[in-house]
Design brief:
The chain has 107 residues and is mainly β. The chain contains 1 helix and 5 strands.
Length: 107
């Protein structure tokens, strides 16, 4: 299985990792198991944190800072381990299809 620089494998690329909330907690679903099996988050690191945001000049509402959090996610059922990032130092506008069509956000 090919690992990417961000720690995420091919199984989480191109829209294949999905999830949902219950109340306001968000859960990632295992990309290998059926029936939206919930993955555990085993660890996270702050990959980047900065006082500015590179996209603030493109939007009316300004982000307070820039950040990237990287999570290690794990499926207890099938033992699959993967990585996913949450970041506002990447393009966050338009539609998901448009981002995928552009090849997605890179490092
Ligand atoms: Zn699984």
């Amino acid at each position: 299985m090919k690992a990417h620089p961000n720690g995420g494998t091919d199984l989480v690329q191109d829209g294949k990792l999905t999830g949902a909330t219950d109340t306001d907690y968000f859960y990632f679903f295992c990309p290998k198991c059926p029936d939206k099996h919930i993955m555990r988050m085993l660890d996270y690191v702050v990959r980047e944190e900065r006082d500015d945001n590179p996209y603030n000049d493109k939007f009316k509402k300004k982000a307070k800072k820039g950040f990237t959090l990287a999570f290690q996610i794990y499926c207890e059922k099938c033992k699959h381990t993967d990585g996913v990032r949450l970041s506002n130092i990447c393009w966050q506008g338009g539609t998901h299809d448009e981002v995928l069509h552009r090849g997605g956000n890179k490092d």
